[in-house]
Amino acid sequence: MKQSEMLVPTLRETPAEAELKSHQLLVRAGFIRQTASGVYSFLPLGKRVLRKVEEIVREEMNRAGAHEMLMPAMQPAELWMESGRWNTFGPELVRLNDRHQREFALGATHEEVITSIIRDEVKSYKKLPLMLYQIQTKFRDEKRPRFGLLRGREFIMKDAYSFHDSFESLDGSYQKMFDAYNRIFERCHLNFRAVIADSGAMGGKDTHEFMVLSDVGEDTIAYSDTSSYAANIEMAPVITSYQKPEEALQPIEKVATPNQKTMKDVAEYLHHALDKGLKALMFKVDDQLVLVVTRGDHEVNDIKLKNIYKASTVELATEEETKSAIGAGFGSLGPIGAPDTVDVLADNAVKNMVNTTCGANEDGYHFVNVNPERDFKVKAYHDLRFITEGDVSPDGHGMIQFAKGIEVGHVFKLGRFYAEKMNASYLDDQGKANTMIMGCYGIGVSRTLAAVVEQYHDDNGITWPQNIAPFQIHLLTLNVKKEEQVSLSEQIHQILEDAGIEVLYDDRKERAGVKFADSDLIGIPYRISVGKRADEGYVEFKERKSGQQEEVHVSHLLDRVTKALAL
């Protein structure tokens, strides 16, 4: 394919809005262009890589027993109302009205649509289990689109759904998908880990995220330094045991702490360590106010709080709501004297604290020498904090360390979450109606493309893995004014294409330096440069990633190329 006939608009300068390497390089190398904030067009090079990633996904989905289909992006609101997500999914759901004022949403995901199809078309256990998937554009109105393809408002996704008559059957399909995802990301040559995760707005339980390890990732992975345990930091349980200090209980005392708003401020003002204080935060869990108490050096994990209450939403109460309920602002909250309308929950670490400090529920005052149970009652103690580096691994093997990750895939055991709400049932072998059991499995296809670039680049550009590169060979004519170079390039181009090798032929009327720079930027795995020794039949053969190069005679070039590509 001739580069002169292809849209490959490379840039020398880095776009001002591009923060991450993947965003910078995909724009500079002419793979994508922004159409609107968080919305991108895939130019020919980008589309070629996208198609190769999609084909890997298709092959592994088919191998796992799933069947491809295509569902509409425009979904009627009634389906989302049936599942209950029309009001709970949040502002990320793109909503619109047609000319008849009927409400629709642009598909952020397709659980509702697929469940409605299967409930109407599958009536017998004989048709189960069933696995279906699609590769399609999704829409989510991100509040702050950023990082190019990693956080957009429109993106390409593979979503699959399985339907079952038993949880054992679901377990089997879940494992097939889990294994398929491992193969997909291995074939994309990514350094990744499968981690225990939260199902979020998807519902259900038992879920894993597939995280590409990267310092620019927005998610934190907690993993053991000696075992295979890995989890999203939100889901990692804390199994650390706490010893009660051998310290005599002191009389409680109220002290003034003027203008001390944070835990750190109070600790410094009262001359004690941060872990000697109690932190209290007010949350709204659905419609219930909950005061969560942790040690001063710990952070409240709102996902754990949500799971304890099996709530739909959890959010911090406003200062006005907090003052109305308890009489004090954020800086002076504490569990002592909390009203009956407020649930008081405490992290497990709090139970063994002695002579600690907490807010007095009066602005500008704190209590010192506070002791749980003696001075305040707790409705229940739970694991309510984020795990920290150095904590014992939840599997009991090793200590926890942190790494950053980019989420590229997610698998869920939905159970009966959607089927119950949407009346999706089947008749068993006794003719009795039963609710279907579901699984859900997603891969961010366009996000995977960006994650590959985050792991495969150098100072000069992208270094694509061979099997998903836009082309296998980049053929450069260094001086198109030299007839012998043009003639040899045309000959090589034909030889390689006849052999079924994907070639991008740079026949442009550009200087050699421009062509070399563009070739490095685009990142095709191997480059053939036709230059000064063309009249002798010699070309330069170079590997993009290692930089290793050699001169090869045209009579041996096809053998050299096939060896490099391991064809």
TrEMBL record:
Enzyme class per UniProt: ligase
Pfam families xrefs: HGTP_anticodon (PF03129), tRNA-synt_2b (PF00587), tRNA_edit (PF04073)
EC number: 6.1.1.15
Domain of life the protein comes from: Bacteria
GO biological process, one term: prolyl-tRNA aminoacylation
GO MF annotation terms: aminoacyl-tRNA deacylase activity; ATP binding; catalytic activity, acting on a protein; proline-tRNA ligase activity; transferase activity
Protein name, as recorded: Proline--tRNA ligase
Organism: Terrihalobacillus insolitus
Record gene name: proS
